[in-house]
Write a structure and sequence with these properties.
By secondary structure, the protein is mostly helical. It has 7 helices and no strands.
């Protein structure tokens, strides 16, 4: 990995971008689950019986992943979840495009139609998340705060 990409600041910036996007989009979906369910249904990829369940669960997973990336909890694990979700999102958008569906991507409350622009955007987020997976850095993380050595007092018997 080139030196610039290995720098801890790059990891922090990747965490801010990916964590911020996941958090922001999740809050939009949590606020209006019925709209998100309708967006999921329009992809025509899931059985109707799973649409509402997905509309309720997925935003909360996105929110947790986003917040954990922002504050620095289990960076590699949460970045892997972000990579997996982004890959699925890219495949779903590509599938919709291939089938000629002109639908809202379902990413947020704002209307964004599926298309190459959205695939490129998600691919860039995926690359940032991969950077975190490859070399997570403990700089400015809650985990680092939890593992700092504090002097302990030894009491002699």
């Amino acid at each position: 990995m080139p030196r610039i990409l290995a720098h801890p600041v790059v990891c922090i910036l990747a965490r801010i971008v990916v964590g911020g996007i996941f958090t922001m989009y999740a809050v939009d979906k949590i606020a209006v689950p019925a709209d998100f369910a309708l967006n999921i249904e329009r992809y025509e990829l899931l059985p109707l019986a799973l649409v509402n369940l997905m509309a309720i669960i997925l935003p909360w997973i996105e929110l947790l992943v986003g917040v954990f990336l922002l504050v620095g909890v289990r960076l590699r694990a949460n970045a892997i979840l972000a990579v997996a979700m982004l890959a699925i999102f890219i495949l779903a958008i590509g599938s919709a495009m291939a089938r000629g569906l002109e639908i809202n991507c379902g990413c947020s409350a704002h209307s964004e139609t599926v298309g190459w622009g959205k695939i490129i955007e998600d691919a860039l987020y995926l690359l940032l998340a991969l950077r975190i997976v490859i070399k997570p850095d403990a700089t400015l993380t809650l985990e680092r705060l939890a593992t700092t050595d504090t002097p302990s007092v030894v009491v002699a018997p």
